[in-house]
Structure formats: structure tokens, C-alpha cells
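REQUEST FORM: STRUCTURE PREDICTION
Request ID: SP-0412
Submitted by: Lab K.M.
Chain count: 1
Length (residues): 348
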Amino acid sequence: MKLGLTMGYWGIGPTPADQLRLVQEAERLGYDSVWAAEAYGSDAVTVLSWLAAQTSTIRLGSAILQMPARTPAMTAMTAATLDQLSGGRVILGLGSSGPQVSEGWHGVPFARQLQRTREYTEILRTTLRRERLEYDGEVFRLPIPGGPGKALKLTIAPVQEQIPIYLAALGPKNTALAGEIMDGWIPVLFSPEHVDVLRPHLAAGAARAGRDPDAVRIAPMVNVVVTDDPAAGRDVLRPFLALYLGGMGSRKNNFYVNVVSEYGFADAARRVQELYLEGRTDEAAAALPDDLIDAVSIVGRPDVVRDRLRAFAAAGVDTVMCAAVAATSVEEKVAQLRLVRELAEDFG
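STATUS: Completed
RESULT:
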């Protein structure tokens, strides 16, 4: 199992100099990858390009690039360019975003997401193979029929023979799609003790394509807090988890609530959601049970963190994307990175 560092959204919190120091320290410590996010603030590509110029070995992942923000061909152009500039270090994480961002920010209808993701990925791979781009799908038709468009091909080649493409997914159908067509899967609120709840969806998709489900690399984003005061560590994580359960999605359709309900926390998840939607966000955070926080995070004393890392490895996780959310200063964040690296080293 490898370790990654997720930076989250750029421009929130640490300065660029502190962020760079953190990434360079992660590279020095042997972290495999660094991941940048985007929503409707900083974009991930600019951040990864900046980091590519100031690092040499750490791989550069997007977690995620929003599909409605770019055409498939534009994403292929971007990935190939960054792969060249970085010497072949790109991991391309994709995601649908949500209806509020897709339609409100990008002006792209949030519809037929499974088919759109399938076609987007097929076009992306065709383009990165530098084949002439002709595609007759249900969502995308290239060139546009009856128009002046030509079937073009990418003029540059990525360094990697095949840039890995990961999908951020939670729902059963999207997770199955990741198992069917993707190189990797990026889950959120992943619990290694409940992997049997999630893996069947991944395996079902892999079976449709005649693939080995173990070929799909699992790379969850995980909040990590190494602390001698577990209660205080959990309290740091409460606002983040309450936001996902209460503020991401609607009352009727929240994939985060659905997934932790499958873990056995249905009543608690609904209670947190109700409080959050009523505007009682502090009460929502306080209502999170300790065992729910522990199930989807890595928090506690060093021996507990070591055991949790072992559990992630045993669940078939390829890369743990660590988010050092509890630390406020760059020195504290670096210290957390070093501790996690030392604890992971205990079992290889």
C-alpha cells in the first residue's frame, strides 16, 4: 500500500509557500502521490503544473477534474501536456461534480451521468492514443454531423503509454462503472471494515468487462489525525463529516448518507442530516457517533493509527490519500506526514 497526500482546494488555509514545502517534504519522505481538487475556486491543473515544476518524483493526481468543466478532448490535451512537462507522473482522477456546480457554474445539464462518464472516458482514451477522433455516442457526437468539423488527432503524445484514469464514485452504479472501465476508484467515507459493502459493486462492474476486480486500484481520501487525545482529534473532524452528511446532496438523495447507512449508521446519519439542514450545524457535528468517525477516518494514538493503516491495506487499498486536516501550521502538518510515514513503514 502506498501513501498519498491530498491538498484539497488551493488558496484555503496555508500559503502557497507552505503548501509547496509540504509537498516537497512528502516527496522526500517517499509519498507516492499528491492530489489537487477543484470545485468553483482554484482549478486542479494549474496547481499540479506548479507542483510539477518544483518536484521530481512524486506523482501528480487530480482528485478530481470536473468532467462538465472540460470537453473530453480538452482533458486529453491537458493530461498529455502535464504528463510531458512532469516526465510521466500524471494520474487523471475524474468526477461528475454535482448538479449545483454542473448546471449553475458550468452550464452543463446534469443528466445521463453514467452514459456521459462512459462516453467521456472512451473519447479521452481514444484521444490519448492519438487516434483520429470520430465518435458516435448517445451524449457525444464528434465531429458534429453535417458541420465543418474534421476528425482530428492529438498532435503530442503523453510520456506514459497509458495515463491511469480514476473515477470518484460512491453510488452502486457509479462504483460498478469504475470497476468496468477505470484504472482506479476514488471513494470518500471509505471504511476498510465495511469493504464488503462496497466491493460487490466494483466486482460486478469488473465482471461485466471480464476484468479482475483487483486490477482496479482503490485510492480513498482519508482524514488522518495522529494524536494522544483521540476525543480532540474526532472533534476536529466533526465539521467535515457533518458537511458531507448534511450539506452534500438533497434530503432525499445524499450518497454519503446512503453509504454510511450501509455501514450500519442509518439512524445517526439521518439525525446529522436533519440537524444540518435545519441550520443547526454545531448540533449536527456533535451528533456524530465516535464509532462512525473512527470507521471513515484514521484518528488516534500511534498504535491505533498503525492498526488502521494495516486495516486499509488488508481491505485491498492501493493508496491512502492522507489529509492532515487537524494540523494548523505547516510544521504540524509536516510532523503528521512524518508520523504516518513512520507508522506505515512498520509493516512495509
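NOTES: The chain is about 50% helix and 15% strand.
Reviewed by: T.R.
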